[in-house]
Amino acid sequence: MLNDDLTIILTAGLVATAAGLLGPFLVLRRVALMSDAVSHAVLPGIVLVYLLLGTRAPLPVIAGAAVFAIICVLAIEALRSTGLVKSDAAIALVFPALFALGVLGVTRYASGVHLDLDATIYGEIAFAPFQTVAIGGLEIARSIVLLGTVALGNLALVTLLWKEYKATTFDPQFSRTIGISPALLSRLLLIAVAITAVTAFESVGAILVVTMLIVPAAAAYLLTNRLWAMVVVTVAVGWVSAVGGHAAATAVDASIAGAMGLVAAICFAVALVASPRHGLLARAVQRRRRRRALQARLAGSH
Amino acid sequence: MGWLIDLIPLDYSDAVVVLGAMLLGVTAGAVGVFAVLRQRSLVGDALSHAALPGVCIAFIATGAKDATTLLAGAAVAGLVGALLMVGIERTGRIRPDAAIGVVLSSFFSLGIVLLTYIANTDNSNQAGLEKYLFGQAAGLLERDVVVMGVLALVALTLVTIGFRPLKTTLFDPDFAGAVGLPVRALEIAMTALLVIAVVIGLRMVGAILMVAMLVAPAVVARQFAGRLALVIPLAAAIGAAVGVSGTLLASRGEVPTGPVIVLVAVACVVVAVLVAPRRGVLWRARRLARSRRRTLAEGVLVDLETAIHAGPPLTAGELALASARPARALRRALRDLDRAGMIRRDGERLYLSEPGAAAAHAVLERRELWSAWLEHGSELDVPDAREPDPADLRASLGDEYADRLHALMRAADG
User: Fold this and answer.
1) Cross-chain Cβ contact B102/A30 below 8 Å
2) Distance (Å, rounded) from C-alpha B368 to C-alpha B409?
3) ipTM reported for the complex, 2 dp
4) What is the mean pLDDT of the segment spanning A80-107?
5) Which residue in A has a C-alpha nearest to residue B271's C-alpha?
6) CA pair distance B155, B122, nearest whole angstrom
7) Non-local CB neighbours of B313 within 8 Å, separated by 6+ positions
8) Burial level of A214, CB count in 10 A (0-12/13-18/19+)?
9) Hey, are the CB atoms on A79 and B266 less than 8 Å from each other?
């Protein structure tokens, strides 16, 4: 019973929440680009589901995509563990290969039907209000139900394993000595990222998820020094982008997901320049003060 | 370029695509090495996504869907993105991966907004702008290939001229700065080279697949060569081979060129990672298996030697009981020893042959020397601070120190 605008904002906000809970860990572990990799690697899964079952219903599509997201994560891990390929190169090899398989599948077998790479497969947030489900007599947008579930799942994961994730993120050696396996937790995190990304693509499109996983967390990293504060600020920046982006998009009649991404980028730019501790301005002031102090000391010594 | 196209024994349109793929492979292979070795393999990802707003702005500015103009827009946007990435990393707080991610998603969001803006302006010409992101090798014209050839030449010339300073900056930026090289400018130059490759690749394989084209040849070349001066030409050659074979495969199977090229490239990586001499996974596995087998045979040899001193010669069954080794491993070791002529058989009984006894004594001597090293090594003032090779201690310490170790051992025992 929500109106359309509110549904769109709520959907984007839930994406911001689900992604914002995981994003800080991705940024801190230096695997932020895993989200982009997963977002492309799921294509063959979606195509395969369409070819085998002939459906674009959300649950089979999410399942098929999730399988390939996990294949992507494991393949990157396998390539990296040979010690011959660095993790960034492994990412850069695996996801284009999977994406290429998907493109081949689309053009070879599905070119007749409307399986357009951009819109249909990767979702469009403007259509979120039109797909509804009835829960207890209430008509609710399907995207809100799906993303709400994922957000709750991520919340449970992060709060239940908070200590463990904190330890493995900042000091993997230490966490290994006290019996927490960094590899296991990292795999779990990436699977959560994959499920979040896949669910969110279906309702809001790939680029918005990737943006929400990386940009708010990067902005928050510039503004905070404690992990819990970083997570809170990340989710907050995500919501600001959702609300601000929607307002901007309706004002100038532009793509909603694009506008939300741009607002997130502006938030990051502001943090980059004006963060009180790590911003470019603060660093310039610091550098000047240090130079002055040095000059004063040198002048005093003569 | 006409004569080059005539040289290729294919019909005209296929020859154009093959030539384009080759140019792409050479350029992407050569400049991708820098991205891979700087551990910024995914810079190409950000640059190719940045192409979308560039293409859109070029279209809005000129109103024409001319390939060269649009690619120029993509190149400018790529350069801006590259500068932004360097700027973001300068804070020191944001790591390369997050910087790449931020640039990628911001530019792509901008591109999507611009696409909707263009769609709203009702310009009938606008259809298919986003095709630039997926690449369309089939529609390649000779004119496009000429542009690609010029760009490739520029990139390769820059790499050749700037080889030394680029190499220094790549491996030791601090040293490069200390000797007065413009490190920041050189780092931007490396990214600018990637922009050139991405612009060539956009038309051929599309933005997303371009990422792998930059990385795969460099990774393959790195498995076979250890010097930058070899890795770069090797990567260029591999890139060209991948481009040409991928194009031919695709035209035979009548499927899109870009994905096939990328799949061939990644298949090459998998093969290289498995079989590369000395480094490859299979190579290392074989070396490990061999050394295990040798150690096992040596162990059995020593078991035999001790057993012969303790009592009457053993049968294989008795040896298995005495040495508590699994029967299969023992059989295998005995077969190896047989083949090497180390043992003689008298009916069921096993004897050491002349060379076998010598080998057993050599193994025992080596083991003794190793335990002497562990116990008394600290009493030697070895000039070389490095840890000696445990597999052949005598050779790595030298005879003099080995003899002194024996003397120390004997002194401690007696």
Assistant:
1) no
2) 9
3) 0.89
4) 89
5) A79
6) 38
7) B307, B346, B349, B350, B351
8) buried
9) no
C-alpha distances out from residue A211 to A20, A206, B387, Å: 10, 9, 50
User: Are the CB atoms for B293 and B339 separated by under 8 Å?
Assistant: no
Kindly state the DSSP code that residue A226 receives in the 8-state scheme.
S
Instruction: Give B50→chain A minimum CA distance, Å.
Output: 13
- DSSP code of A278? T
pLDDT 10s digits, B277-315 = 888 999 999 999 999 999 999 888 888 888 888 877 778
Q: Is the pLDDT of residue B407 over 50?
A: yes
Mutation target vs A (from B88, B103, B105, B271; most A CBs, 10 A cutoff):
B105
What residues 114-153 of chain A have any CB closer than 8 A to a CB of chain B? 117-118
The three-state secondary structure class of A8 is helix
- Compute φ and ψ for A139, nearest 5 degrees: -85, 115
* CB-based contact, B104 to chain A, within 8 Å: yes
- Amino acid type, A135: I
Strands A138-141 and A132-135: antiparallel
Q: How does DSSP assign B366-379, residue by residue? A: HHHHHHHHHHHGGG
B89 touches chain A (CB under 8 A): no
**Encoding tokens for residue B380?**
């030697």
Which band of pLDDT confidence, cut at 50, 70 and 90, is reported for residue A115?
very low
Tokens of B396: 């790595």
Scan for tokens 């010339």, then name that residue: B157
Between A280-301 and A256-274, two packed helices, what is the crossing angle to 10 degrees?
10
Strand partners of residue A135: A138
Q: What is the dihedral of CA A104, A106, A111, A116, to 10 degrees?
A: -130
Note the pTM of the prediction, 2 decimals: 0.84
**Within chain B, what is the greatest distance between any pair of CA atoms?**
101
Q: At what angle do helices A162-170 and A182-204 cross, to 10 degrees?
A: 110
**Could you tell me the two tokens for A210?**
């990737």
The answer to whether A48 and A63 have CB atoms below 8 angstroms apart is no
DSSP state of B313: P
Asked if B45 has any chain A CB less than 8 Å from its own CB, the reply is yes
